[in-house]
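Researcher: Last one for today. Full complex below.
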Amino acid sequence: MIKAGIVGGTGYTGVELLRLLVTHPAVELAVITSRGEKGVQVSQLFPNLRGRVDLAFVEPDDTVLKSCDVVFFATPNGTAMKSASALLEAGVKIIDLAADFRLRRAEEWEHWYGMPHACPELLAEAVYGLPEVNREAIRTARLVANPGCYPTAVQLGFLPLLEAGVIDRQSLIADAKSGVSGAGRKAEVGILLCEAGDNFKAYGVPGHRHLPEIRQGLITAAANPVELVFVPHLTPMIRGIHATLYATLTDPGADLQALFERRYANEPFVDVLPPKSHPETRSVRGANQCRLAVHRPQNGKTVVVLSVIDNLVKGAAGQAVQNMNLMFGLPETAGLEGIALLP
Amino acid sequence: MIKAGIVGGTGYTGVELLRLLVTHPAVELAVITSRGEKGVQVSQLFPNLRGRVDLAFVEPDDTVLKSCDVVFFATPNGTAMKSASALLEAGVKIIDLAADFRLRRAEEWEHWYGMPHACPELLAEAVYGLPEVNREAIRTARLVANPGCYPTAVQLGFLPLLEAGVIDRQSLIADAKSGVSGAGRKAEVGILLCEAGDNFKAYGVPGHRHLPEIRQGLITAAANPVELVFVPHLTPMIRGIHATLYATLTDPGADLQALFERRYANEPFVDVLPPKSHPETRSVRGANQCRLAVHRPQNGKTVVVLSVIDNLVKGAAGQAVQNMNLMFGLPETAGLEGIALLP
Amino acid sequence: MIKAGIVGGTGYTGVELLRLLVTHPAVELAVITSRGEKGVQVSQLFPNLRGRVDLAFVEPDDTVLKSCDVVFFATPNGTAMKSASALLEAGVKIIDLAADFRLRRAEEWEHWYGMPHACPELLAEAVYGLPEVNREAIRTARLVANPGCYPTAVQLGFLPLLEAGVIDRQSLIADAKSGVSGAGRKAEVGILLCEAGDNFKAYGVPGHRHLPEIRQGLITAAANPVELVFVPHLTPMIRGIHATLYATLTDPGADLQALFERRYANEPFVDVLPPKSHPETRSVRGANQCRLAVHRPQNGKTVVVLSVIDNLVKGAAGQAVQNMNLMFGLPETAGLEGIALLP
Amino acid sequence: MIKAGIVGGTGYTGVELLRLLVTHPAVELAVITSRGEKGVQVSQLFPNLRGRVDLAFVEPDDTVLKSCDVVFFATPNGTAMKSASALLEAGVKIIDLAADFRLRRAEEWEHWYGMPHACPELLAEAVYGLPEVNREAIRTARLVANPGCYPTAVQLGFLPLLEAGVIDRQSLIADAKSGVSGAGRKAEVGILLCEAGDNFKAYGVPGHRHLPEIRQGLITAAANPVELVFVPHLTPMIRGIHATLYATLTDPGADLQALFERRYANEPFVDVLPPKSHPETRSVRGANQCRLAVHRPQNGKTVVVLSVIDNLVKGAAGQAVQNMNLMFGLPETAGLEGIALLP
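Model: Here's the assembly. Have a good evening.
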């Protein structure tokens, strides 16, 4: 059994990670830390885990964490980078669900996240944990940067087009809509039910932290510069991201449906829908799945890709488990076969 | 492997049954019928099942159904009673998720459901499928009447009090609130998002079909007459029932917390919360669980029980699988260990 | 024009009060205070008021407030009691939307609100602002304690029965469900969309601050002791309270429908629905209305009253304006004729 | 007083029209028709109107309608065109809230709406009722085609840019999100709370009926051909449209904020927010308002316009009343001064 630790398990990615790890056939949950909730039973904070998780939150303690095979950081940005080196030296593998190791250039990270990076020397080693792109590198990684939720949905939608070189790389648009859990479990007025409920709005249009992460991934896929406009929106639901992606076709003869189906033919967690489909976020609620549809409205020059994920699963905790499976040589789908809850 | 058939799988209990049976370790899904959707792939109607269910809906066909070990009826009321005899004769076990076999007296059934009963002779044999009450009878049953959603939540809350004889049986009140999926997947104006959303109302106060079913169960538990007022409400969420139960204590010295804990000590799917708790419906969302709390406000004569279930799981499909497990000698929890989705 | 001031206008009752006062034909909005948001334009915090309210929040300032004809306190509990005396002396009328003056006995207030009362000497003068009970006293009041939201819905439902003496006063039950705006506009985890959304739960079953307020009102109506169990619930919607009230009939011959219709025949803001009705909260969304229905299920001994209000209107700001109208000799319905928003 | 009739008032635009007309100072509601609900009190179907509307639905009757000054058609597409000629001949003014008179070319209408047009000869006379474009023509019109909800939000967002000629007309994108009431009050499975709730999806990507209407309006504004991709989405809320509009700047020096502010400086119902703003749909809930913000992310070549309306008000009934005000020489804002309900 793989001994797993979770640092900072009081948020939504933390409870989702617990839900997945508790039923994982090859994982033993060793420790879960939280300064704020130390001493509190996990199942008291998250009653869905009553009878399934017997642990209490404890203070972060290097000795215990160093005895784990893998440690997941479900912490705010800027936390994992402080502990990573010591854990790696102790032979522990790390999966960071926050943003500390997602960007390759420390200066760019510091610009968008507004703090100095504590271990820029690890950025080169960290592997960006999008298995559909980096599967082989993940298998041998010690340190995986689990992708953001928007970046997962947007990259999986654009990848086939960029890799095949059939679109103009200078005019990409990602119009993305997220359920409110993407904002985390924080006491903030803007995500109260009475503020975010029965309401729809864009946010961060001048600039959002996921923009450089998405751009970096798209540039890698295109092996060329890419220009992207990214507009995130808050939609009154709990889970789910729907990314609507726009690009200008440069190869009007491309068979887009075939392109997408071929690209993801062997991917267990990416599902290309039949032509003219409209994926629904609820079709992936609670499941480690991305569902995609590709359209070319009025047979014009614009390609429209619709991409849905559950931001807490394929966009966070599920993808982290998928990465763990790869890092430990387990079947990639282990513990991730739950079916989406519909309705 | 148990060969299972589903009759009428296009509603919410149908898709939930599919979700549970597909991952059940001992079940093979043989056939799913629907007159209206015949020929349609199940995964087209319910995209959460893409890649997991390869069946198409077919017309009900006795030959195929008779080859099953068990047939679930996820049909409107009045359907199962027409096919039950023939299937039982063919050696097929039946679990009816509708109401056809829930009431013992045919006249009472006909009064509340407004049609003649097609096989009153089976009512005596049918076992009411509430395992916490009828576990042994279910094990040997050929025909199980799966309880209604409200009746499950209400009975599990009142049972310890009635069995122990510590309350006045003449003044029970069940104030119950249901998510909208309890009304089914039907094209009706009243359950549109724009009618039932951001809205709360009672319904059926003059009389609801679950009243005689609840009353019958409570009378059995009390081995005495019982008077109950039952007021159901529609609450703007998808899944979940919250029953708030009121009774007058006749034994003011009773240790209610201990009574509840003792009654359900060995029940895998009933969870008694600590004193002063308030169970949330989301703590059982997607899970085959009932969570209960018992209160005595201001130390007065009124006992208040709070009972939550997911109406589609412990209130329908999950309880049906639990019954199947019992009928076929499987571990009672087989296929039912999924953890509730929170948030 | 009546010069009105609002102290503490950054919460939901504050913005609702603004919405109503801005379109009130006889009111001029003079000042709105908030320590936390001082200097911020009201319309920046509440963009629905753009172009309609030109004020910015200012620090509370006695000079300005004393120049008003009426000051509304839309503040947390414990605030109004500190300023009331000085304002009254300056000839300003006060309407407190918080709880400071709702309970007649200072000790009881201190017990439930956990702090000493700053001006118990005013409690005897303060008029409980439920116009359907205290209309004449309100007309001449200097200080009105605006009722709580639950207390408004519950009292209006029980009043006809208690005043007529047709029920057992020792066994009242109020099972109440509130939209989340009742909890206020506060940065608290429990009322996040991802916590309170798609979820239902009871809270405060051991004791809620509205219990003594309701009890006091019911005792006055009955002119006799009353026993009440009060169970509040949080329902996943923004506005609205639905109270489901239970009582045991002592006069089984009473014509309950006639009793209710007669009691409220001349009330502009209480609407008794026809027999067998089920009022919906959305039928009063944004409107200063209480809608009631009275039932006697199965013609038994239990009477069930269904009572709905918008917690922010008839349960707070609307009732405050109704009280202001009475205190200043205006038509009671002035500024309160908006129709509920449906859907 | 203007005598107004409503044909087909059982849908959401119908009840919203009633809400607005009942409190309109210059309108007397004469008749409301519905074949399906004939004889039913309006307030029984829409309990928010109890005590405010005393009419019952009646069968459509030309005599009564011809006695009106204005008739609103809140009917399905294809209805108004059958009665329009006769009413116009009788001197009645017509405002059609459906699509019958929105497109200038009958063939295009017939292509998108799939039926022959019953009175193509009226298309040239009909005035497209977007006051911000056609105010003077509306004043003298006999027949007004009230714009669709999406077309209103999209056109108001693009107009300043197209009129000023600062964007590439060949690459417009409108990514629009609508609350579910836009789909009407129809018994359809897809808009049940359990289908559309807690879910997000695009629909009609291959082609939506509002596309030709939007395109026609944009071409007129640009006085040039225009290419547009239009992707509508269903978002789990009741009211509101949020259009996110993308265009490529051809004049990178344009002062976009000033352009928008100038264009709408005198418009009572279009509100341009300050730079870097994100309008929320709830800021216009129930109000006849469009709120706009214009962005240029990363100072790049793409302009992003955010446009919100309430689909039932500025997107339907409110705009219809605004048009009526213009047609009858009333103040344009008469009866439309209600403030949005927030929260």
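The longest strand of chain B covers residues 241-248. The mean pLDDT of chain B is 97.
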